[in-house]
């Protein structure tokens, strides 16, 4: 099985990158660590921590999402509910709530979910965000729990990957391993860095 080391980045959409930068960088304090762009296209990355980022594509004509509360079911096509970002301490959770309240973002009260305490709000694109502090000693990753009273067959098999349900990966040729150029190579060119000119 492959090993994973977190979410490299979540890719979201905005129609207003300036408002998005103001919220994610200036209000929440997440560094803007990479920016790609040309007329009609921007792709910016904000650092959540030393490993994880959230990114936004700015697409002309993109409008904010319709407001949909976190965890409330919807009908029709859906593939996203909310972004949950961990904070390091309970104090950090209260600090982010105070920042959101001072900015007029109307955060929720702190909600106790047992294993996490959370605050909910929306960014300028109406993306639902949850900020969560992990309650010490209650991390389900340390001791997985299935509290669903009627889990489906695969979920009832336990927390670990179950072999035999998918074909194994075959041998790879050199052609299978070829790497193709894509957006972002310009980040490696020091002459392109507008902050260093």
Summarize, please:
The chain has three helices and eight strands. The chain is α/β, with parallel strands linked by helices and 197 residues long. Among the domains are: 7-60, Roll (2,3-Dihydroxybiphenyl 1,2-Dioxygenase, domain 1), CATH 3.10.180; 80-141, 2,3-Dihydroxybiphenyl 1,2-Dioxygenase, domain 1 (Roll).
Task: Summarize the SSE layout with pairings.
Layout: E1 9-14, H1 17-27, E2 32-38, E3 41-47, E4 53-58, E5 83-87, H2 90-102, E6 111-112, E7 116-122, E8 128-134, H3 153-156
Parallel strand pairs: 1-4, 5-8
Antiparallel strand pairs: 2-3, 3-4, 6-7, 7-8
> From the helix content, strand content and strand pairing, which structural class follows?
alpha/beta
**Main beta-sheet strand count, sense and barrel state:** 4 strands, mixed
Mean pLDDT reading: 90
Order of helices and strands: EHEEEEHEEEH
> CATH class of the domain at 80-141, anyone?
Alpha Beta
For the largest sheet, list the strands in their spatial order.
Answer: 1-4-3-2
Number of strands: 8
Report on this model:
- The protein has 197 residues and is α/β, with parallel strands linked by helices.
- Among the domains are: 54 residues, 2,3-Dihydroxybiphenyl 1,2-Dioxygenase, domain 1, CATH 3.10.180.10; 62 residues, 2,3-Dihydroxybiphenyl 1,2-Dioxygenase, domain 1 (Roll).
- The strands form two sheets. A four-stranded mixed sheet has the order 1-4-3-2, covered by helices on one side. A four-stranded mixed sheet has the order 5-8-7-6, with helices on one face.
- The radius of gyration is 20 Å and the shape is globular.
